[in-house]
Amino acid sequence: MKVSIVGGGNLGSALIQGLLQAKGWRATDVLVCDISGRRISFLQRKFKIKTTSKLKEALNFSFILVLAVKPKDMEELLSKLHPHLSPPPLRGRIEEGGKLFIAVAAGIKTDFLEKKLGKVPVIRVMPNICVAVGEGVCAYSLGRYTCPSDEKKFLSLFGGLGETIKMKESFLDLITAVSGSGPAYIFRMIEILAELLEKDGLNKKMALQIVSQTVFGSGKMVKELKESPESLRAKVTSPGGTTEAALKVLEKDHLKEIFSRAIKAARKRAKELGK
What we know:
53% of the residues lie in helices and 13% in strands. By secondary structure, it is an alpha/beta fold.
């Protein structure tokens, strides 16, 4: 199987990196299309993949196109793609010579994609940047014209990048706010904790090692031990101990309310991007 990725930004680059680490994918199976000559030169040097600045070449390379441009650029991209698509009745079935379009831009809904492209199979997916190491969350929804073979191809592509979770499209803006943006929240927390360790004398490398492993191990416990976060937190929080003292400060400063406002702002922005 081959794939064309249109848009070589941070998320497009993360997808490429994840695919090349996944089983069964080679650099010759991936083509990235970007309008920036400098960017495609960088990606070609880094990943040894095929590159182009021409949409027609991306369309000819694979039946599957991942649309990884920014939301503000999606409408222009779709208008450029539409003239190259086969007219009905061929349009809409991969096995009949059509294309499968997978959009990863925040807020861009399947009905918008179908309105611009016609009756073609589209899938909307919200991955996060952790796909770069095969540990992403890829929440997705199918468009009206997809068939089982379309979804199978999608899963063959994204299944090696982390966990794929099918859901109603109405939830995807929320998932964007929590999972799509979520790594940045975690990275910020890692930054803060590492800076505090550095401030008190640890070198940067050791500080990042300690904090990143703490975050990794905590997430792994939640996934593998099948215990609730509340239960695990209680195991660490001894009455009158250091953890309890720290958590009291966080609760006093309304940590939950801060996260609630942050998620609300991100979700609102995702909705705005889709308009």
